[in-house]
Amino acid sequence: MLQLIAFDADDTLWHNETLYLEVEEHFIALLASYAGPEQARQTLHQVETRNLAHYGYGIKGFTISLIEAAVALSGGRIQGSSIQSLIDVTREMLVAHVQVIDGAEEVLTLLSGRYELMLITKGDLFEQEAKVARSGLRDRFQRVEVVSDKTPEAYATLLTRYDVMPSAFVMVGNSLRSDILPVLDLGGQAVYIPYPATWSHEHAEVPQAGTIRFHQLEHIGLLPGLLDRLDERGPS
Amino acid sequence: MLQLIAFDADDTLWHNETLYLEVEEHFIALLASYAGPEQARQTLHQVETRNLAHYGYGIKGFTISLIEAAVALSGGRIQGSSIQSLIDVTREMLVAHVQVIDGAEEVLTLLSGRYELMLITKGDLFEQEAKVARSGLRDRFQRVEVVSDKTPEAYATLLTRYDVMPSAFVMVGNSLRSDILPVLDLGGQAVYIPYPATWSHEHAEVPQAGTIRFHQLEHIGLLPGLLDRLDERGPS
Fold this sequence. Notes:
The structure is a homodimer.
Chain A: E1 4-7, H1 17-30, H2 37-55, H3 59-73, H4 80-95, H5 104-112, E2 116-122, H6 125-135, E3 143-147, H7 152-161, E4 169-173, H8 176-186, E5 189-192, E6 214-216, H9 223-233
Helix pairs in contact in A: 1-2, 1-4, 2-3, 3-4
């Protein structure tokens, strides 16, 4: 019954948000003589949110937002060396070790023998391809797709391209906004695995009880059991 | 005989490099109290070239390179307001009017009735999708593909995905390095249309005479005639 199991990557298969939070702490310390932690954090988040429309997702846009927030918070007095340090710490993010979430590798290995697996990640093509390569998980997937945003249209395009019916499609991810709601809209199955530090931008309401194509798991290790049950139950 | 005609976008269908050169002039003026034009330009190009490995292609990476070069050239004394002005001018690039090259629209309209047309552009997914939308040319193409780099592997993946033989494939572009040489390597036809201000990074040697699958045109208006001749001649 189930044909294609797709996974989000950041904070579903590997830790990602924690890297951003570490850099945010560095930013707050760097701006300490100009602003308190709360003001620094708030200004950064405002600049980041506004800049999403200009830059899309990813580390390069985040770098520019950090610099812009630093200029604003310091009233233009920020030192060149501090600007350079923001460029340096974000450049380290680009080559950071990809820390795979406990159990993910084993689950993918098990499932890759049973289903067609796809990775669907949004954001920067260059950054995401590099992370997939560094993760060591590339060969578990038949396909890796990077989209600029995870809209219902983006999912519909992929299902059409690879000739998959929504009822045979399962998406697994940690973001209600990006991984779950658009897939439920299309008629697919969605498995929500919350991550402790999900970015505020990705928050949305948990779908109403009764959405029988919505499933929530505590950790990825429980996924094979859920898929077995879905396959037995047949299409909904 | 010919099945799929693919086009590069930047500096093949619309002007792009000129936007970068305008911002470079702004950068040189901004740094005038710290460095002469030649030193400013040279440092910027060095930083840009080094940063390609970190950031890939696109305006966001260029923005960070401008900031980094400004910090370096000023010995860290660059003003916050100057940093912000670099962010502002590059943000304008992201929404700049897409100036289509003379004749491109007419040629695409003519060819779209005869062949399957594809746009293949490298660089930032978010930026390139936005430019395609702003260009008004989207509906001339069956497919738009953004790749992180135009390697022979990237072209081979596309030909496999869409089931096209290299001998039935024509790539049209202004970069010998990205549009021409990898396609000749694969056995495809390549049409080189030089652009006056091609970025130094894209330079390569013009293939040796005798490469019968290599063609050079002075402007895109000559493309339909060339394709007619190629189709008469049959596969090489």
